[in-house]
Amino acid sequence: MINFPKILFNKRSGKLEAILLAITIFLTTLTLIFAYIAYTERKKRERALATLRLNRPKEEKISQKIDNTKLLARALSLIREGIVVMDPYGRIIFTNKFARELLDIHPEDIGKFFYQAIRNFDVISMINESFNEKYRAWQEKKIKDKYVQIIFGSDMDEKVLLLIDLTPIKKYENLKKDFIANVSHELKTPVAAMKLSLETLEEECRDKPEAEKFLRKAIERVNYMEQLIEDLITLSMLESVNFPVKIVEIKLKPFVERVVHDLSEFAEKKEVKIEIEIPEEALIKADEKIFHAIMKNLIDNAIKYNREGGNVVVGFRDLTREVEIYVCDTGPGIPKSHIPFIFERFYRVERSRSRKLGGTGLGLSIVKLAIERLRGKVEVESEEGKGTCFKIYLPKS
Asked: Nearest to residue 86, comparing CAs of 45, 123, 55, 53?
């Protein structure tokens, strides 16, 4: 007989096992999926943490760099020099406080071209002139109420305009000039009185050779002081802004002949012959007083520092846009190392010789300043053992 309940039980038991196996596989798969998800999430967190750790020093460096830039900008705003930084195309990328105040640059002008931002035509012209040069410097210039020296420099990345404030130095120099001028004027009268007294005493001591010798030395020193005071007064006048310059037409040859005549006694003592190589028709345009100071000092020096029996030549050349006046001597010449300094005040090539000859050390300073007032220039050519030639160039108009 067939046992139907047993067969049915076996069939149910097989189905149950299959269901349990399926559930087991499903749960195992689900566990593996969750484990994989958890693993991948953990790896993501680890990578994120690693990235944060790597980026933190960079962020700190960027923050530090920003802080340093701000600090540098603040420091540059405190200095008494103006700084304008431009990109290679001339757009302004940085200015400090002094430059903004001096050139009227507004904060919103950053990023504009220099000719749009700077409100001073002379400075714009200077930048235009030197825009493609590596370095350019100009002499002092007055902007508003300040005296500044302007320097422009550039490289491949930036162009920099530097404004150096010379106002305190200028004020000091003006005080010094005023002091020297006042002292010179105050000393002029007592020195003249002293000279007169010594000359009177010299007349009285003709029969006393020893006393006369000492008086002559004293008169020589007073003459030196008198010349020094005159030179200081001349310098102060030439430096004065209020000193009038009256340009007139001058017949050169008779003018030079008068100067040579005034120095003829000195030239005779040194046995120096003066030749004037100037055509009769030669004309120049200059201020008579200023030009007299130039020629007197140059010819006086040519005689003073010449050898005994030497020659001095005063000549003239008519050039295209200017005239050249030269004074040449046959003296010992000036060493090349001294030439750059000879126009400085109180500079002497040979101190003992210069003082012995009565030089004050101010003659060439007067010459240079006087020529500048006439919008001219001076050049020096010298050869040791052969002589020196000073050449003056004055504009024709």
From this structure: 123
